[in-house]
Amino acid sequence: MQTETIDIRTDEALAACLRVPRPVAALAFDYAADDHIPPHEHVKAQLLYAIEGTIVLSTREGKWVLLPTRALWVPANTQHSIRMRGPVRMRTLFFDHTVTAPAPGCAAVSVSPLLRELIVGMLQEPRRYASLSRGAQIAALIASELRVCHTLPLSLPWPRDAKLRKTCDAMQRRPSLTGDMEYWAARSGVSSRTLARLFRSETGMSFGEWKAQLLLLEAQVRLAQGQSSSRIASALGYASHAAFSAMFRKATGLTPSEHLANLH
């Protein structure tokens, strides 16, 4: 796709990052809440990092959540769109083919304090840094840090089947514990047995597993936005704060407050 169709505010700087013959190039831009970058792809791989804010990245295969102090790896030539869940201070690195990917496909990855400072430092360097310059040394350290990044379970597989996609879109628009498989089967015009089969074949997860991951990701986004766990529990349909906290701890090994502390 042509870079000039993505976002007129960043297209010139983006094109420079994609053209420059260097292993690593950096781009910074701040976005408003609910800003949307339409489907596009790049000839270089990229690492999306938000100093502040959360985003949801979508591809044909799934959706990934970017939380503060985490990053999203997107391989070259991967079509994706991005939705800002609140104001976002985005810092993006682009990589040529010489840099080893932390994962074979899109992935949420951990960001060490060192990598975080290297990302910020890379933005202070000229894009055409000399081979023995500070910029080249920072780029080499970034590539080294990428090799030890850990992938994180911050994704949700997305179906290709048109009918199931419509159901999943509806569930994502209003994520809630209420509405069992029979309810969603009736809304989709299929039997619960067919819906169960579709979820398993299209996402590799049962209906219950997929819905639980949807709610967990939504809860993590809302926590990162500063919402209280009591408010989130109510919004997502849990009978009590205790029930929500028990779900969260079972899924992550942390209470909501412990998880939030880990984001800072």
What's the layout of helices and strands?
Elements: H1 11-19, E1 24-31, E2 36-40, E3 45-52, E4 55-58, E5 62-66, E6 70-74, E7 80-84, E8 88-95, E9 107-110, H2 113-122, H3 134-146, E10 151-152, E11 155-157, H4 162-173, H5 181-188, H6 192-203, H7 207-224, H8 229-235, H9 241-252, H10 256-262
Antiparallel strand pairs: 1-8, 2-7, 3-6, 3-8, 4-5, 4-7, 5-11, 6-9, 9-10
Helix pairs in contact: 2-3, 5-6, 8-9
Organism: Granulicella pectinivorans
GO molecular function: DNA-binding transcription factor activity; sequence-specific DNA binding
Keywords: DNA-binding, Repressor, Transcription, Transcription regulation
Write up what this structure looks like.
- InterPro entries: AraC-bd, Homeodomain-like_sf, HTH_AraC, RmlC-like_jellyroll, RmlC_Cupin_sf.
- GO terms for molecular function: DNA-binding transcription factor activity; sequence-specific DNA binding.
- It is a single chain.
- The chain has 264 residues and is of the alpha+beta class.
- The protein folds into 2 domains: 3-152, Regulatory protein AraC (Jelly Rolls); 160-262, Arc Repressor Mutant, subunit A.
- The chain has helices at residues 11-19, 113-122, 134-146, 162-173, 181-188, 192-203, 207-224, 229-235, 241-252, 256-262, and strands at residues 24-31, 36-40, 45-52, 55-58, 62-66, 70-74, 80-84, 88-95, 107-110, 151-152, 155-157.
- It contains 10 helices and 11 strands.
- It starts with 10 loop residues before the first helix and ends with a helix.
- Helices cover 41% and strands 22% of the residues.
- The strands form 2 sheets. A 6-stranded antiparallel beta sheet has the order 1-8-3-6-9-10, sandwiched between helices. A 5-stranded antiparallel beta sheet has the order 2-7-4-5-11, covered by helices on one side.
